[in-house]
Amino acid sequence: MDLDVFVTAHRTEWDRLDHLLRRGRSLTGAEADELVVLYQRTATHLSLIQSTTPDPLLTARLTQLVVRARATVTGTRKASWRDAARFLTAGFPAAVYRSRHWWVPTAVLSTVVAALLGWWIGTHPEVQAAIAAPEDLRAMTRPGGEYETYYSSHPAASFAAQVWTNNAQAAAMCLVLGAFLCLPVIWILFLNMLNLGVGIGLMSSAGRLDVFLGLVLPHGLLELTAVFVAAGTGLRLGWTVIDPGPLSRRTALAQQGRAALGMAIGLALVLFVSGVIEGFVTPSGLPTWARITIGIAAELAFLAYVYILGRRAVRAGDIGDLTAVERSAELPSAA
User: Fold this and answer.
1) Alpha helices (H) in the chain, listed in sequence order
2) pLDDT digit string (tens) for 175-203?
């Protein structure tokens, strides 16, 4: 394509679109219709130039025109409480439900890895010796030791806030770093399972595995589920880089990235609940069975939330992404 000839042929349309955009709300009905037509044509011109003979200056000018025209045609929209309610009752559970084929296998495999690590550490004294000196291990695993006092070492409110912040950061890292071909997510997940496996192994070797599980399960069920969801979503995002499917890589990544952003917000709320349980329930004087029951109830409530509301939202057409009106217009692809 001869770029100079193309510019000469369509410059008048672009200048006319720019003129109409400067007029703002003073357009007549016919001029508004003309603006829509010119917006569509200019978007097509931009796509054609980008795919054949990209020129930085011309591309920048047409991109600005298309963005301004789209804002004029579609108008602006302010977020409302209705948007927040839709996100919590449809968008977030739909996104989690749709990614279940990623995070459920991630959860199962990670749990198996943590159990195997715990068995290996608990049955091999030489591995325990490599972790810490015998006196340090006794200080961690004895009654009233570090594993037990950890959850009551700070005031409940500040401890819950600290736990929530740390877990939310870990989940966000899984979501963001997934774009790097999944490898950082796998590493973060392994470190989490290694930490859990060490606790299982050391406390089981001391004959106090029941105490350890009684401390971990109340908050750990929901907390680990949130981490698994984040990891699974990150892995899905990374796989999109490798295989975007029928969509273009750019479009597929944009779709998955928006869903991951919403997931980060939703998981922050889930981890807040987990942090409250860890700060106020885990170190409480409640019987072990009562603390574990609270943890199981929180986990079952989240799963019901995902599998009932999420499935319903997906069947209604919600994919956990922005609505069509809220998404940026996709430019036509040149043949």
Assistant:
1) 3-23, 29-51, 56-74, 81-86, 92-98, 100-122, 125-131, 134-141, 146-149, 156-177, 183-205, 209-242, 249-276, 288-304, 311-315
2) 777 767 678 889 989 998 999 999 999 99
- The answer to whether the CB of 239 falls within 8 A of the CB of 198 is no
Q: How many angstroms separate the CA atoms of 173 and 20, rounded?
A: 45
- Name the token pair of 265: 């917000």
The two structure tokens encoding residue 186: 């796998």
Q: Which two tokens stand for residue 298?
A: 């929180």
Residues 6+ apart with CB under 8 A from 290: none
Q: What is the pLDDT of residues 29-65, one digit of tens each?
A: 888 888 888 988 998 888 888 777 777 788 888 888 8
**Cβ atoms of 45 and 89 closer than 8 Å:** no
Asked if residue 299 lies in contact with residue 221, where contact means CB atoms within 8 angstroms, the answer is yes
| Band (130; pLDDT cuts 50, 70, 90) | very high
How far apart are alpha carbons 149 and 131 in whole angstroms?
20
User: What is the maximum span of the chain, computed from C-alpha positions, in angstroms?
Assistant: 85
